[in-house]
Amino acid sequence: MSVSLMMLGMCLGSVDIPFIDLVRVFLHPIFPDFVQQPSETYYADFIYKGRMPRMFMILLTGFSLGMAGMVMQGLLRNPLVSPFTLGVSTAASFGAALSILFGSFLFGALAETKATVGDITFYFDDLSAVLFAFVMAMLSMALILGLTKGKEVSRSTVILAGVVISYLFQAGIMATKYFSDDDQLREITLWIMGNFSGSSWSSIIILTPIVIICGIYLMNMALKINAMSAGDDVATSLGVDVIALRRNGLIVCTLVTASCLSFTGVIGFIGLMAPHICRMIIGNDSRYLLPASGLMGVVILLISDLFCRMIIRPGELPVGIVLYIVGGIFFVWMIANKKWSQRI
Asked: CATH second-level architecture of 2-341?
């Protein structure tokens, strides 16, 4: 399903590309004697330079946020936990906003540094945004863990701590917007709303190894997360170092979340919705729930992005707007649903 949606996403947009031409773009360079050229020569540039990087960015972001949300819910045993509800997304966006506002001042000429490998150009600004986003996201997680380190902390207290931290970083974002110039304000605003229009191959190359390494690490935690579902005492009796597992897992989730959001802006509720949808389908076994949550995150994000590009053509709606609406409705449903409300 994800592959079909990605193909559809490469065909539809401000300029529709017939599916047969999409196939020709991919196959003509390989089989020039058997496959015709696309009917329009610019289709190849549209796909290779614009829509393919966009689809891969959605793939990496959706998979990362879906897995991170599932792991956070498992480690903290709270169905409302996700990178968004804990304020990690807001903190990462604040870091990116700081990079936009002060990057040239802090790094000087280094901020304009770039390196070209083949047809792909890497900008130092991309790396600085990841660094700032990660530091702020880690700070938010450290604050949450510090506020909720007591053994008797209730599940709702974790969410409350995340809301408080999120408000603090929202204040920081508003301050950066106030002190920014017109160009910086536009860029920060786009970050906050979340969008994939700026996706590039350089960002994909930077992000891919981070997602792969973090994904493998999180997958290796599946059995231990299953043990923790029975409680910390049971997990400890089975040989699980609960404190280290929770700390390391949250750090890795924060790293992969911050890395993705530093390129896309705020993408909310994927980490909340994807795990719960998958639980209703395949159950609670983390060995299957982890990859399924990642794939479900990709599907939700692909559908949302496609809707945003089709509703006001030739323009596009920021994907964050749609996810706020859908995620808010889903959040209310969880609270109203007796099965889930009893767990909160």
From this structure: Orthogonal Bundle (1.10)
